[in-house]
Design goal:
Length: about 700
């Protein structure tokens, strides 16, 4: 159970590492449990993926994540994470299962045991195993702890579930690693290629050149025919391959509280004034803290404040039963009350011994207090605090330092621990109970001088739109939607007429997670990818918290080659550029004088001084004979003519000269390919993703 708690404490780190693995356990043949459904969320390698299968896999993964983290539910961010991971794993399963079979790839029980035990450390530990079972003090993989956990996992149902999950994570991660390793091992840079890379880097030229920029000819002077556009489009067809996406225009109507809403919020908080002021703080501050946390929208802050930090003289010196307010601050009405006036330092230092209830040797807090009392007596009689901390403290991080926590300010520790350190005095030995156990604390340092400070209790009631206000804004959003009539021009006219701000989002895909100004874009994304939603469609209002959103679809792109009409502006610009290039090249046929110079240019260079990226010009210069004038070169930003004035060659290149070039090129190749393997798998598997219609 201790290992389970440690796994949970790792929190977000574990979630990220799990994302690197492929979970066959969770992605078993769930589809065999269901008959073919008419509603499929995807098709991969010709095999339909039903909505039931997807939901079952999602549920399995979600439940395992809850067990690992010890949480009853996942927050929105983790839900999105699980959604992505489940989809990726479904794709990999259908794309790779037959590939694994054909290659004979698998992971034996013996190999899995070696992963758990760390015997295969020379080939790289499984990342999830390494993360969970790395000793936080030594930063080394603790094979003994890993083996012990898996060997004893059957002692509880929860441990067994986690062990099974982790074992299959490791198994499938290893299987995928083998597959990618086979691909990467087949990649290499030959000695010939390495030598060429070396020459491309060290062979340099200097040259003089002149240029005429495309911008010197106005676009309006160039005429382009439909036939020319079609010819360019046909000759560059592959340049227009695209993925399914949408462009939208949208309006966000932020619901702003009315004057009546402010009156209501003020009246609501006035209800607390008398009760808030009657709470006694003479015996304990816990009652007022609990009251604040129960009734305020902002949790109680433990920190003590100086007069300068509080910024209100009357409030700072008020009696502890005085209630100030309600005052309006940052869209909220606030009641304020100061209490717990003390003279304390800004910074303290302390060391501690934590006695933690473990349900075995230390069964309850009473027993933990007895142990702390005994240790306190030993220290007072001359025992070494540091050694006792090393031998007895459950806080292993500080125990190795003799219990030393260093210096800290308020807010770094839990309130009871912090109050003991700040309100006590240097040298005090104190016993304090917190949610972590019983602490034996020695105050080792307090800054001086001490300062007069108070705690501030605040009841905060945010002013929110009432039902009438929300209804008014909903009516505005509905009118905008209805009056647009699925007409983009009408939609734009209404926006302008009502002085609204139009926002634009382009190239939205089913995987898009963020749309500016919208907290939860998922319902909008589902709508824009519905079969019945086309170019020009205007939505009914979406509600996103205190915001109403009306969306119009301005462009629809399907998987495949974009039609000419969709890319016409881009093609037109390219054809105009081509025609300008021909005109300028003709004008520069007889150039013999030059006004610019480029030095130390190699084939691997990309930029040409301030003229930008010009690969064609650079390539021509490196191949041109010295003192020879080039023909006009049609480049990216203009047309160029150049004359090489100097060439420096590496001469004969030996294998040893190109060792670094070979190594660096292989690293770049491995990195690029490893990042694109999954995308290549999806392309090869002909994935048809229709999840956006359902989720």
């Amino acid at each position: 159970m201790a290992t389970l708690q440690r796994i949970r404490n790792a929190g977000p780190i574990i979630v990220i590492v799990i994302g690197l693995a492929l979970v066959a356990f969770l992605l078993g043949d769930v589809n065999k449990l269901f008959s073919r459904s008419e509603k499929d969320v995807a098709e991969i390698n010709g095999t339909p993926v039903t909505i039931q299968e997807y939901q079952a896999r999602y549920k399995n993964y979600e439940e395992s994540m809850k067990t690992l983290t010890g949480k009853s539910s996942l927050d929105e961010q983790n839900q999105k994470f699980v959604k992505k991971q489940v989809w990726d794993k479904i794709v990999k399963k259908y794309a790779l299962s037959s590939v694994y079979d054909n290659l004979g790839l698998g992971v034996s029980d013996l190999e899995l045991a070696k992963i758990v035990s760390g015997e295969n450390i020379q080939t790289g530990l499984d990342p999830l195993t390494r993360q969970i079972f790395t000793d936080p003090n030594t930063r080394q993989f603790n094979a003994k702890a890993a083996v012990n956990f898996f060997s004893n996992a059957n002692q509880s149902e929860e441990s067994l579930q986690v062990a099974k999950f982790l074992e299959n994570e490791m198994r499938d991660n290893r299987e995928y690693t083998k597959y990618t390793s086979l691909i990467l091992k087949g990649l290499n840079i030959t000695d010939f290629e390495a030598k060429k890379l070396y020459k491309d880097r060290v062979n340099i030229v200097d040259f003089d050149y002149t240029t005429k920029k495309y911008s010197s000819i106005p676009d309006s002077t160039i005429s382009v025919s439909e036939a020319e556009l079609q010819t360019y489009y046909d000759n560059h067809n592959n340049d227009f391959e695209q993925k399914k996406s949408r462009d939208i225009e949208y309006v966000t109507l932020n619901v702003i509280p009315s004057a009546d809403d402010y009156k209501t919020a003020k009246k609501d908080i006035e209800y607390y004034i008398q009760e808030f002021g009657e709470i006694s703080v003479d015996t304990s501050i816990n009652e007022i803290i609990d009251y604040v946390n129960a009734n305020s929208e902002v949790p109680f802050s433990d920190a003590h404040l100086t007069l300068a930090e509080l910024g209100d003289t009357a409030l700072f010196y008020a009696s502890p039963d005085s209630v100030f307010g309600p005052v309006l601050e940052n869209g909220s009405y606030v009641l304020k009350r100061v209490f717990d006036r003390v003279n304390i330092p800004d910074t303290v230092g302390a060391r501690h011994i934590l006695i933690k209830v473990d349900g075995q040797g230390i069964k309850d807090m009473a027993r933990a207090e007895e142990i702390a009392d005994s240790l306190k007596v030993l220290i007072k009689n001359g025992a070494d605090f540091a050694q006792l901390a090393k031998d007895n403290s459950a806080d292993q991080g500080s125990a190795q330092k003799g219990g030393d926590l260093g210096k800290f300010t308020e807010g770094r520790m839990v309130r009871a621990f912090s109050d003991a350190c700040f309100k006590g005095k240097t040298g005090d030995l104190l016993i304090v109970k917190t949610q972590y156990g019983v602490h034996l604390i020695e105050i080792t340092y307090q800054s001086s001088p001490k300062k007069e400070k108070v705690r501030l209790a605040e009841i905060v009631n945010k002013v929110r739109p009432g039902n009438n206000t929300i209804s008014e804004y909903y009516a505005k959003a509905t009118a905008l939607s209805a009056n647009s009539g699925n007409n983009i021009e009408k939609f734009d006219q209404l926006i302008e007429k009502d002085h609204l701000t139009k926002k634009i989002a382009t190239e939205i895909t089913p995987e898009t997670e963020i749309i500016a100004g919208i907290d939860n874009p998922e319902p909008i994304i589902r709508w824009i990818f519905k079969d019945e939603t086309g170019k020009g469609s205007v939505s009914e209002p979406f509600q996103d918290g205190d915001v109403f959103i009306v969306v119009a679809v301005t462009e629809v792109r399907k998987d495949g080659i974009a039609p000419l009409e969709q890319v016409k502006d881009f093609v037109t610009a390219k054809v105009i550029k081509q025609k300008k290039g021909k005109i300028l090249a003709e004008e520069m046929q007889d150039v013999t004088t030059f006004d610019k110079t480029a030095e130390n240019i190699s084939f691997s260079s990309s930029r040409l001084n301030n003229d930008g990226i010009e690969y064609a010009v650079i390539a021509t210069a490196t191949q041109l004979e010295k003192d020879k004038i080039s023909k006009p070169i049609i480049g990216e930003n203009g047309v160029y003519v150049l004359k090489v004035t100097s060439k420096t060659s590496a001469g004969k290149v030996e294998d040893k000269d190109a060792v670094n070039d070979k190594r660096n090129a292989e690293r770049r190749l491995y990195f690029t390919v490893s990042r694109k393997i999954f995308d290549a798998l999806k392309d090869a598997a002909d994935v048809k993703d229709d999840r956006s219609k359902f989720f």
